[in-house]
Amino acid sequence: xxxxxxxxxxxxxxxxxxxxxxxxxxxxxxxxxxxxxxxxxxxxxxxxxxxxxxxxxxxxxxxxxxxxxxxxxxxxxxxxxxxxxxxxxxxxxxxxxxxxxxxxxxxxxxxxxxxxxxxxxxxxxxxxxxxxxxxxxxxxxxxxxxxxxxxxxx
Length: 154
Fold this sequence. Notes:
By secondary structure, this protein is an alpha+beta fold. It has helices at 13-21, 24-34, 40-47, 51-63, 78-81, 84-97; strands at residues 67-69, 74-76, 105-109, 121-122, 127-128, 134-138, 145-147.
């Protein structure tokens, strides 16, 4: 999945992770899988990716162990679910660098209901933010909080 260079054999863990995750399409596909979309057409429509682009990225994500394909669609694997704090960090970065943007993703703890500024931990109730305990509010999806899909079921 590298954009410019192949870092799959690099000794640096950040370079190796970038080899898999630094593709913008991969990040958008992960976002949509966490949001509950699992079928190819849903992922295509939500990301705006061409069929060929989406098919290549899903195949690469499968080879990297991030997603599995089954009936009726794709699901996150354990490794795929581990990317959630990375998506949270991206959302936090954007809200910090452009807080008045027309987009928005608010990350909240599903246990206590409080919005969090952390990528992986709720500062209010001191619990980890994983797919089973996190709520997102996406302006692009109507602005109502919703539970994430943990990927356990296709």
